[in-house]
Fold this protein.
Amino acid sequence: MEIGSWVSMPKVELHAHLNGSARSSTLLELARGLGEKGVIVFSDVEHVILKGMFCPFCLLDLFNDRSLTEVFKLFDLIHVLTTDHATVTRITKEVVEDFAAENVVYLELRTTPKRNDSKCMTKHSYMEAVIEGLRRVDAVDVNFTSTNNGVGRTVKSSLMSDTHTYNGLPRKKIYIRLLLSIDRRETLEAAMETVKLALELKDVGVVGIDLSGHPKVGDWTTFLPALKFARDQGLRVTLHCGEVPNQEEIHAMLDFLPERIGHACCLEEDAWRKLKMSKIPVCAIANTSSNTIVWQTSITLSAAIIGGLLESCNSYVGVEICLTSNIRTNTISSVDVHHFADLYRDKHPLILCTDDMGVFSTTLSKEYAIAAATFGKKEIFELARNAVEFSFAEEDVVQELRDFFNMKRDEYG
Ligand code: 6MZ
């Protein structure tokens, strides 16, 4: 199977965890460093990291399987390796460069703000380190802020033109928006702190909240007040839903009507029906203070009335599909039986994503190659194009992405 042709196709990534996307080579280097300082025993962790080493030519190199439990143990190790400010900045820069190198033009990167007293790290300073990583990217033009207030850097040229060059080649451009994750291990108080931080960082590209973490840990209802608060304040919400067969939780999550859900692997018949029928009322609101239009769920109707309701329509709950992740963790036994096929046939909005490209040794191009092995090339380009509609970015960014994909249709469609 050809991965190369999928590398050049422009793509949108909506479900990528920062620490799960870190390069294995960087993790090895960090582990070696900590080993030399005596903080960890390098030989104990080397093989764990090596198991995730990237194989650029294999589509589903199944020898690399990791169970969900193993994966979450690996995350704990990764967090030991990465949680200081300089490293968070470094891996953010590298992850953005890796996505840009495979022609991702819009990346919604999610991460769990972490407090680590031993490193004098607060959730806020963790996010400052992430944002510093975005600023440090120099090989591509990065736009990570909706405002031009000098806090973030804006793209100097639009996606539609190739006016800037880097080493004699047209300079790539990438839009980045951030989602702050709530880990299911956290308390409601910690989750609230994350939501308030997200609101504080709206100017530097934070657009929403994600609920993630080990799906068998904690009770998602703990976080409902924080998730409702986030939504009431205009943040977008995506939930990891149905990674394990907990039907009560799946139904309750669908009833919450998040704009998107991640994975959706273990839904039984009635939950599928609910997902496919669920429609989120959305309304366009004129934000009179900033002279912009924002799309919000009409659950925030009071805000809509104050802001001036322009128009309303409905949208389905988008499903973030992570093929390799689901197969590597044995959540789904093989691609042929993956729910991608059923959702695709029913034209339910789905978005191909990587989840954790370091941990699962995948890339977005690989995910497209796997999907293309089952479906036609034209339809696969349409998948990338439709993903734009499910991004949480501001309407003017979404419009630019739409125009860009329409321009590329003849080439890739
Ligand atoms: C649920 C996942 C995940 O936030 O430290 N995470 N949560 N299911 C998954 N599928 C396998 N993959 C990653 O990135 C790593 C964190 O993201 C969540 C976990 O909480 C993990 O610790 P950040 O940047």
Q: What stands out?
A: The two ends are 19 Å apart (CA to CA). Confidence is low (pLDDT under 50) at residues 148-157, 285-293, 298-311. The pocket of N6-methyladenosine-5'-monophosphate is lined by residues 17-20, 71, 75, 111-112, 181, 183, 212-213, 240, 243, 325, 329, 355-356 (CB under 6 Å). The first helix runs from residue 4 to 8.
